[in-house]
Amino acid sequence: MSMWCSRPKPCPLPPGGTGRRPKGARVSTARRLRWQPLVAALALATMAVPVLAQMANNNPVSVQVARAPQAGDPPPITNLRSLYVLHCAGCHSRDASGYPEKGVPSMRGALGHFSTVPEGRAFLVQVPGVNNAGLSDEQIAQLTSWMVRQFSADTAPAGWVPYTAAEVVAARAQRPADIAAARAAIVARLQRDGLDVR
């Protein structure tokens, strides 16, 4: 079958022919199908750009800086367990045991210990997961306080006070450049103080 004829036997080139498909000749189905995935991908990409831009502007999960509520926005999630499941459980697991073998620390029992030193308390709201969650400072304060009470109440220092939005703002403004090194330094200090933190 030639590239311009759909008949099973080859079509001869006309004398002095150029090898181009004659005007009006049909293109084979196989040749047409070869371009369809590319055309479909380009069409989807063209349609996806405005949709993705709209999602980035309207989806509160993708917003890095809190913004004023807009008309038509869904109501904010106020259930702290739901916020934990949406923003924390993906890495730290639903029961906060984390995946230490993969570098994701357990929060069970540890959050209270971190709260015994100022840099540890600040660190809990400086980690990338908190900063990239798209939550307001008030939501972060409430959620972090809930997590300490939920997963580490027995290790929280005497007189522990819940986080405030102002405290979250101040801590996030002085975020360490190297989060892993900052955590290692805090853990080393807590271990020197006799606390079982990993």
Essential attributes:
198 residues; mainly alpha; Cytochrome Bc1 Complex, Chain D, domain 2; 2 domains; 9 helices
Mind explaining what this structure looks like?
The chain has 198 residues and is an all-alpha fold. The protein has two domains: 33 residues; 113 residues, Orthogonal Bundle (Cytochrome Bc1 Complex, Chain D, domain 2), CATH 1.10.760.10. The protein is built from nine helices and no strands. It is elongated and about 90 Å long. The N and C termini lie far apart (70 Å). About 5% of the residues have low confidence.
The gist of it:
The chain is an all-alpha fold. It is built from 9 helices and no strands. Helix 2 (80-87) crosses helix 7.
CATH architecture of the largest domain, please?
A: Orthogonal Bundle
Spell the H/E element sequence. Answer: HHHHHHHHH
Structural class: mainly alpha
The beta-strand count equals 0
Q: Return residue spans where pLDDT drops below 50 for at least 5 consecutive residues.
A: 57-65
Largest sheet: none
State which percent range the strand residues make up.
Answer: under 5%
Helix and strand arrangement:
Blueprint: H1 29-58, H2 80-87, H3 89-92, H4 110-114, H5 118-123, H6 128-131, H7 137-152, H8 165-173, H9 179-192
Helix pairs in contact: 2-7, 7-8
